[in-house]
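Researcher: Please translate sequence to structure tokens.
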Amino acid sequence: MSVKVKFLPDDVTVIAEVGEPILEVAKRGGVFIPTGCVMGSCHACEVELEDGTPICACISAIPSTTNEFIINLYSDPVW
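Model: Translation complete:
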């Protein structure tokens, strides 16, 4: 099943498959998400879902629960 993934604030849309890693989808769309440990511990890759829920992009995949998935990117000045 294909899911339309929208990366905000740049409004970049990428078609992804359910279960595909978010970092891979972002990379394919030319969207940079910083990484650190790539295990979810350091939170360098933390992004927010449309409802404000934070997730670590390095350990998260495209869910099967929706046909559109919105990810809000933000910069952490500490990183």
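Researcher: Any highlights?
Model: The chain has a mean pLDDT of 93.
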